Amino acid sequence: MDDKQADALAVLLSNEHATHFKTLNSQPKLKKFSVFKETRVAATRGTISFFDGSPQTLRGQLKAFMFSPKRECCTPYMIVDIDSKCGWLKLMRFVGNKHAELNTETICLLLSGDDNDVNSFGFRFEHPERFPGNKHGFFHVQPIISNSTDSPFPGCITWLPVHFPTFYMFASSAFELTIFSIHSLAGWELLSEFQRKHREDNGVLKHLIRVGDSSRVPYPFGAIA
Q1: Per-residue model confidence as pLDDT tens digits over 105-141
Q2: Which of 26, 91, 115, 129 lies deepest, with the highest CB count within 10 Å?
Q3: Which residues contact 19 (CB under 8 A, 6 or more apart)?
Q4: Are strands 140-144 and 117-126 parallel, antiparallel or unpaired?
């Protein structure tokens, strides 16, 4: 990912996180998610948490990691979206695989009942893997019940398979993988605003923000005006 793309995405994601963080702190029905704040989880030695520092710090961390992913390292989780109607908190983080390629992990959290029981599910968005026979030798998405550091997702469906289904992504770069991940959590509207603001000319991005009849424009992406 080039410097311009990394900076633009870092601004988008850090700003969205800051906005949702304020929403979480201001709405009584969402304050229960405060148990997943990074500082509180660290104090209790928990496993899944989201960033609770300054937006400027998060922006710097995200840009640096996207521009130059660190092998087998990761960024903090950030809030990409909140489904206030149904009560889901949607988190994402960047992960560097063993080849220092940029992947993402998402986790969605729900607290329900009088005891705030936790339910969760997640997906990983990955570069082509180097398995014999190229089993997953393409950009793809798979379900997960734990993250890259083997931290189990609280309240997940433990029998859920993690090697299939495997969804093909029409991506060819870290930038495109990232926008697929954002689209899965926040929808096309956020990416449409991003495209207009930064005048990003990427063909995959242009296709992801097409809706209605326009979404029927066929591949390849290069044919999109």
Answers
A1: 999 999 887 778 888 899 999 999 877 766 787 899 9
A2: 91
A3: none
A4: antiparallel
